[in-house]
Structure to design on (523 residues):
């Protein structure tokens, strides 16, 4: 029993990270139908930039804040320099652009930060807490709290603010959004900034547990994508549930089968979802356009 | 109020507006009638700024707005109820209306919404339901109400009667003629030429990207060429 609890704790921790990556996918997908495969690189940048700022002598919270803001800026630049000029191109082309951007960001990070593994200290020490016979790192609680806080903030943003509704409106009908006075290019910029900031936050939270290096983004993007697919692409609730489910499935696979099969879990899930549940658990926003 | 001068527009390499000139005076209801594919929708898209103009100009209240981005034209007083309604299907009726007043956040928003509900009581009944579930007629009402939430001085309506039952068509046209009392100038595009000309002050006839006739609405209704081509009488 305590063994199961242990697996659940580790599953919830990585699951929260996948959920954050999946939420990042969701925001950009909703605003533009684009699946942004540079989402994993935002996570990497969040961790890496924090490492650099912290190494430069800044206190950790400030270093993390700077990393998140700079990553958001990089997200905006990605939109302005690569996505916006290609507006009107088929979505597939835009997705390929994001893959190119992810390769570019990874390469730049390799040059800038080197190939070695980096880390910075946990926020609240490394003494594990004992809960019901299992242990959990304080940092894991930070990760879970971060995932939940972002989800709630996004939920409030999309349901309670006019700006949030403008993003939903733009995703639903870009033309009509322009006709009511929404600057749809600005909505895109905002979406990239938000997604990048959320990705960077995930990187900041998880790096003390997993460490980071220039190439952690690929795997995270794939896992986050699997999570988003599982939950139903475009649905924030689906992103959260999909991420946590995927994390738990991975942890159980690693615990009861073998950690060698852990990564396969995500791919098996992508395949199963594509075959049997193409809309994901929470369905796509399948609203008819009359 | 609104003046279109020698306007040309194209989709890719194909020009579909070959020099449109027309004007709308403050307080008027002006209609543009014409057959399928004449370019009426393209004209309204140009006026709203969601369609590139290749030559000519759009002057609104004395200012050239030809290159003003779409989202800035709302604040100047031009809103549109577009062809095919284009409501936000994933949002509720009330959210659709609120977004119509996206640029505003003062007390008038609530008052305007109350007005919209008085104009179309069915929208009040359905205010918390997803707009995608509305019938065609209700969606049309929502599209018009949403455009009015933007506080237009000049409202562009693209085929508000399309696909509606005759009773509803009459209701929509009644609402449009009632806009005069609210100081809203209307540019109404219709294939239903008879209905449109009956409530309009003046009309233009558009054929394949050109204005071929214009004049007071009564004169156009009485014109034998129009009666034959558009009114089927
Ligand atoms: N997106 C588009 N791409 C290419 N051609 C287009 C596009 N939209 C319209 N056209 C063409 O432009 C011409 C004018 O179309 P438009 O929709 O403006 O006509 P309309 O008068 O509004 O017709 P309707 O009464 O059917 O709404 C038509 O020949 C049409 O085929
Ligand atoms: Mg049309």
């Amino acid at each position: 029993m305590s063994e199961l609890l242990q697996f659940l704790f580790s599953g919830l921790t990585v699951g929260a990270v996948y959920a954050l990556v999946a939420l990042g996918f969701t925001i950009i997908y909703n605003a533009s139908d684009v699946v942004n495969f540079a989402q994993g690189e935002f996570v990497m940048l969040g961790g890496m930039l924090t490492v650099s700022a912290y190494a430069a002598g800044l206190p950790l919270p400030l270093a993390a804040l700077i990393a998140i803001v700079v990553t958001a800026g990089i997200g905006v630049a990605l939109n302005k320099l690569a996505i916006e000029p290609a507006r009107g191109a088929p979505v597939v082309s835009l997705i390929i652009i994001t893959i190119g951007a992810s390769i570019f960001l990874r390469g730049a990070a390799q040059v800038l930060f080197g190939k070695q593994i980096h880390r910075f200290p946990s926020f609240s020490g490394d003494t594990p807490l004992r809960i019901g016979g299992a242990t959990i790192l304080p940092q894991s609680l930070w990760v879970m709290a971060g995932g939940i806080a972002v989800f709630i903030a996004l939920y409030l943003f999309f349901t309670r603010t006019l700006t949030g509704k403008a993003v939903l409106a733009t995703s639903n009908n870009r033309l009509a959004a322009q006709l009511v006075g929404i600057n749809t290019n600005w909505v895109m910029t905002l979406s990239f900034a938000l997604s990048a900031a959320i990705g960077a936050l995930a990187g900041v939270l998880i790096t003390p547990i997993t460490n980071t290096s220039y190439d952690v983004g690929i795997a995270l993007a794939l896992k986050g994508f699997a999570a988003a697919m599982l939950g139903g692409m475009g649905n924030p609730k689906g992103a959260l549930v999909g991420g946590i489910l995927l994390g738990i499935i991975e942890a159980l696979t690693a615990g009861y089968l073998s950690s060698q099969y852990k990564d396969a879990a995500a791919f098996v899930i992508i395949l199963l979802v594509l075959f049997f549940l193409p809309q994901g658990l929470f369905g796509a926003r399948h609203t008819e356009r009359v | 109020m609104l003046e279109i001068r020698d306007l040309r527009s194209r989709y890719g390499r194909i020009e579909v507006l070959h020099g449109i000139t027309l004007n709308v005076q403050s307080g008027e209801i002006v209609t543009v009638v014409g057959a399928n594919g004449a370019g009426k929708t393209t004209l309204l898209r140009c006026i709203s700024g969601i369609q590139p103009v290749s030559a000519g100009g759009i002057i609104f209240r004395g200012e050239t707005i030809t290159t003003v981005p779409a989202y800035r034209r709302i604040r100047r007083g031009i809103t549109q109820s577009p062809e095919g309604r284009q409501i936000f299907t994933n949002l509720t009726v009330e959210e659709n209306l609120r977004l119509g007043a996206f640029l505003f956040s003062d007390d008038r928003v609530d008052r305007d919404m109350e007005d919209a509900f008085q104009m179309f009581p069915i929208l009040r009944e359905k205010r918390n339901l997803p707009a995608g579930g509305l019938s065609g007629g209700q969606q049309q009402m929502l599209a018009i109400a949403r455009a009015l939430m933007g506080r237009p001085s000049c409202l562009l309506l693209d085929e508000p009667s399309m696909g509606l039952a005759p009773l509803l068509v009459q209701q929509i046209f009644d609402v449009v003629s009632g806009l005069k009392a609210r100081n809203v100038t209307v540019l109404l595009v219709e294939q239903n030429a008879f209905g449109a000309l009956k409530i309009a002050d003046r009309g233009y006839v558009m054929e394949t990207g050109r204005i071929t006739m214009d004049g007071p609405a009564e004169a156009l209704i009485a014109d034998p060429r129009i009666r034959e081509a558009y009114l089927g009488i």
Summary: The pocket of adenosine-5'-triphosphate (ligand 1) is lined by residues B 11, 16, 34, 36-42, 83, 191 (CB under 6 Å). The interface with chain B takes residues 162, 165-166, 168-169, 172-173, 175-184, 285, 287-290 of chain A (CB under 8 Å). The CA atoms of residues 122 and 139 of chain A lie 6 Å apart. Strands of chain A lie at 129-131, 134-136.
